[in-house]
Amino acid sequence: MALADIEGQPRALEQLRAALSSGRIHHAYLFAGPPGAGKSRAARRFAQGANCERGVDGCGACDACRRIDHGSHPDVLSIGPTLADGTAARDGEIRVGQVRDLCAALQLAPLLARRKFAIVAAAERMNPQAQNALLKTLEEPPPDTTLVLVGDDAEKLLPTVRSRCLRVSFGPLPAEVIERRLVAEGLVPEDAKLRARLCRGDAGMARRLDEAALHRREELCAQLARIVAARGTGMSACAEALDLAERHATDRSRALAVLAETAWWLRDVIVVGAGADGTTAREDGGPLEPGETTTRGRGGSPTSPTSCLPAFVRDPIVNLDRLDDLRGAAARLSPAAALAAVAALGAAARAIEGNGAPRLQLEAAFLVLAGAA
Ligand SMILES: [Zn+2]
């Protein structure tokens, strides 16, 4: 079942399934949502559903489904920032020539398909000329064709392009879904569980996290816990705060990343203080058993009690392996103090984005956390 393969996106799935079963497939879609949410995979599944020889859900096994899976179906075309020879365009852009070729191919009658598809991956990378070249096809689409624009940052598309597409919104994937995939790919369950939470809904990032990044995050969490533990005791909290600022002030992007990670850590402190204990709200409503790796509750039935909730409510704790530290910090830091620290992080990030000195801004934010400002 090809469509059932779209996990953790019940609303998008419902919308696509309704289009397929009613036979009212729009001529242009914008699949919008964060990286790693499964948008490109959903675009292929949608094309399978429209062309499957056996049913509207896509069987995944017939000739049409298999060709689409392998990228060898002559009527399911795709372009992206990667050029035909496999190399990326130097500026990472999708060129006007690629779009013109795609639109010309879409005008030709299908060879095998009932409905011809053109998929534009990373559509926001189309430069303005490339986007303008799409307009004619969007305004006068050839019959029985569907264009799917897949965008991580759909707001970057021209309004004239966006407004001519039917939007299908994708959310960050629930940690539970990513965890299940990582285990299926052979990761140790404990590792999969942690990565699935740290990546905050981006399955690709969960795979890319390397040992160095995991180690940096552990050190950061430990130091944040020390700052909060020493909070209000004078010099030691301040010394830790200034040391943390110095470590991460090497460049702006590092400074911004550490501010974001600290904000997630503080969010964990707040939810732990509110009673969260690290269990995932399961699709059948019950918490996970200790050590259980979510083999139950497959798919994202729209009728299950928690599947309609955003991922940040379903999987509330990100730094799941630091639960003891988080409990200790929650006991010392009132929610109001934690929120004041979050506000200080936000102010520091805005200042750095506006050309403020990373070191000074990190110091100011971490001193608030240390209770010294
Ligand atoms: Zn099929």
Q: Any chance you could write out the topology, listing elements then pairs?
A:
Layout: H1 10-22, E1 28-32, H2 39-51, H3 63-70, E2 76-79, H4 96-107, E3 116-120, H5 128-139, E4 145-151, H6 159-162, E5 166-169, H7 175-184, H8 189-198, H9 203-208, H10 211-229, H11 235-248, H12 252-273, H13 311-314, H14 323-332, H15 335-353, H16 358-369
Parallel strand pairs: 1-4, 1-5, 2-3, 3-4
Helix pairs in contact: 1-2, 2-3, 4-5, 7-8, 10-11, 10-12, 10-14, 11-16, 12-14, 12-15, 15-16
The chain binds zinc ion.
The site of zinc ion (ZN) has 9 residues, from helix 3.
Beta percentage is: 5-15%
Shape: elongated
Main beta-sheet strand count, sense and barrel state = 5 strands, parallel
CATH class value of the largest domain:
Alpha Beta
Distinct helical segment count = 16
Bound molecules: zinc ion
The tally of domains stands at 2
CATH architecture of the largest domain: 3-Layer(aba) Sandwich
Write down the Rg: 24 Å
Mean pLDDT: 88
What is the end-to-end distance?
A: 57 Å
What are the secondary-structure elements, in order, as H or E?
HEHHEHEHEHEHHHHHHHHHH
Could you state the oligomeric state of the chains shown? single chain
Q: What would the CATH topology of the largest domain be? A: Rossmann fold
Number of strands: 5
- Fourth-level CATH superfamily of the largest domain: P-loop containing nucleotide triphosphate hydrolases
Widest β-sheet, arrangement of strands: 2-3-4-1-5
Category from helices, strands and their pairing: alpha/beta
The helicity comes to: 40-55%
Uncertain ranges: 282-304
